[in-house]
Design a protein that fits this description.
The protein has 2 domains: 95 residues, no CATH class; 222 residues, no CATH class. By secondary structure, the chain is mostly helical. It has 16 helices and no strands.
Length: 330
């Protein structure tokens, strides 16, 4: 099969885009909640509370349906490997996105990219299909990850101020539930709306701890879980809750400052990772434009295909190693 220069350039660009998307997918997948190490520490601190929270979520949710069509709803629950994880990930965006809407958007993206690659760019059917499937699987995932990360970042920024507001309410004589209601009324979203959900759940008869754990499942940031564990420990052991929460607020601010400092110190390494990762694709494209007949052997010869596969594997491995080097758990 002969490959034209235009198709070759498109294939190179598509390969580079696919590698970048995979790197972005890895960056957005596991660190939205502050890292798995922090989650393991929280589970060790209060394993029974975590199990209680997981059991109470279904009782506080208004609906467990992923589609208005019962048949589609059953198909989603039977075919998707982990619908609960996907549902929780969509809830972190703060938008009312159903799983069925997410799947329809993925299908539309796959069809649009695949048809554009086949009819507009005249790519072979298998290449167009691969581009469509990969785009439909990765692009919506990255968009949802971006929306969730942006909302969680705003939540973490405002959360110490919310704790300070609870502390002022406690020192003025208000109970914890009233202080949480005040936070929901006074703080901006997304902190305000999540605390309003806690107060609404308590108002309809839910336990405060269960209501907070149901929000923690949707928010899924260690800072909020620290607050729940602090309240649980204080309820069991007693003590000055206002002073404890004041210390927690100061700790969370210092933790955020340390994260920003680490990010600043690792910015040069992250920029180097992007440059080194994109350099092979840039050089391949330049060499192909200068001497296409020399570089086309890598595409038409099976031995060249093997070398390209090995090279892409090394590039992906190097990108993964550099990514792990610049990720620090605080």
């Amino acid at each position: 099969m002969s490959v034209s220069p235009d198709q070759m350039i498109w294939l190179l660009g598509a390969g580079a885009l696919f590698t970048i998307l995979l790197l972005g997918l890895g960056l957005a997948s596991d660190d939205l909640a502050g890292g798995r190490a922090a989650k393991r520490r929280l589970a060790r601190v209060s394993p029974g509370t975590v199990r209680t929270a997981a059991a109470s979520v279904s009782s506080l949710r208004r609906s467990n349906h992923d589609s208005s069509n019962p048949l589609i709803d059953r198909l989603i629950k039977s075919l998707l490997p982990a619908p609960d994880k996907l549902r929780a990930r969509l809830q972190r965006t703060g938008r009312d996105i159903a799983i069925s809407q997410y799947l329809v958007a993925s299908l539309l993206v796959a069809l649009a990219v695949g048809l554009a690659a086949y009819f507009a760019l005249r790519l072979p059917p298998w290449v167009a299909a691969a581009q469509g499937v990969s785009s439909g699987a990765i692009l919506p995932h990255l968009v949802v990850g971006f929306l969730a990360q942006r909302r969680l970042t705003r939540f973490v920024e405002l959360f110490p101020d919310a704790i300070d507001l609870i502390v002022r309410g406690l020192r003025s004589g208000l109970p914890v539930t009233e202080s949480i209601t005040t936070v929901g009324q006074e703080m901006r979203d997304p902190v305000g709306i999540e605390f309003r959900r806690i107060s609404d759940a308590v108002r309809v008869g839910a336990n405060l701890e269960e209501a907070m754990w149901s929000v923690a499942r949707r928010i899924d940031v260690p800072e909020f879980k620290y607050l729940i564990i602090t309240l649980s420990i204080q309820r069991e052991t007693g003590g000055n809750l206002a002073e404890t929460l004041s210390n927690l607020s100061d700790l969370l601010r210092k933790r955020r400052q340390m994260k920003l400092k680490v990010r600043s110190m690792s910015s040069e390494a992250r920029a180097s990772a992007w440059i080194i990762g994109s350099l092979p694709f840039i050089m391949f494209g330049l060499l192909f434009m200068l001497n296409g007949s020399y570089m086309i052997t890598l595409i038409e010869d099976p031995r060249g295909n093997l070398l390209l596969g090995v090279a892409l594997g090394f590039v992906a491995t190097g990108a993964g190693v550099m990514w792990k080097m610049v990720r620090f758990e605080i």
